[in-house]
């Protein structure tokens, strides 16, 4: 394979999306629910690409890469979980931890959050899950990413 072809291949694989950084108005957008008939496979593919290429990332919201749809990806027990139209249905406890965000590089902040959240969502197969409890670690990520879907990020707040 010659070099030109190789470069072409690499280009094809790269998504058009990139991480949107602080100051980008899309981070303030309240994202829309994903309709039943709507495909989100391109969004999920681009989000996974970004996560695989950001070693520090443990979660991502669709608007962080330019899609204003209610899709988040969260690392839970070492696995990436796709949550479409996530809704917290129950909350338990409280924790304070230091958080960062891919959209706010090198900013870390202590943030008080609910300890565990029970979440209802559709998975990457578009199957409705009965609400499930997430671990304390993933619960924090879920809350962080749902904040993004609602147009806000506590890491970036004054
Ligand atoms: Zn974030």
Structure description:
- There is one protein chain.
- The chain has 158 residues and is α+β, with helices and mostly antiparallel strands.
- It has a single domain, classed as Alpha-Beta Complex (Peptide Deformylase), CATH 3.90.45.10.
- It has 3 helices and 5 strands; from the N terminus they run ααβββββα.
- The chain has helices at 3-13, 41-52, 136-149, and strands spanning 59-61, 71-76, 79-101, 104-122, 132-133.
- It has a 5-stranded antiparallel sheet with strand order 1-2-3-4-5.
- β2 and β3 (79-101) form a beta hairpin.
- The N and C termini lie far apart (52 Å).
- The relative contact order is 0.19.
- The mean pLDDT is 91.
- It binds zinc ion.
- The site of zinc ion has 6 residues, from α3.
- Residues 101-103, 144, 148, 153 line the site of zinc ion.
């Amino acid at each position: 394979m010659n070099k030109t072809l190789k470069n072409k291949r690499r280009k094809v694989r790269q998504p058009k999306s990139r991480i949107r950084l602080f100051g980008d108005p899309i981070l303030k957008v309240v994202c829309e629910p994903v309709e039943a008939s709507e495909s989100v496979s391109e969004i999920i593919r681009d989000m996974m690409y970004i996560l695989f290429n950001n070693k520090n990332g443990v979660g991502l919201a669709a608007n962080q890469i330019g899609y204003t749809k209610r899709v988040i990806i969260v690392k839970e027990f070492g696995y990436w979980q796709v949550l479409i139209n996530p809704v917290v249905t129950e909350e338990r406890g409280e924790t304070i931890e230091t958080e960062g965000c891919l959209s706010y590089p090198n900013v870390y902040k202590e943030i008080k959050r609910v300890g565990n959240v029970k979440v209802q969502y559709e998975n990457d197969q578009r199957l409705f899950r009965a609400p499930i409890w997430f671990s304390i670690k993933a619960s924090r990520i879920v809350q962080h990413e749902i904040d993004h879907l609602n147009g806000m990020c506590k890491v970036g707040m004054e």
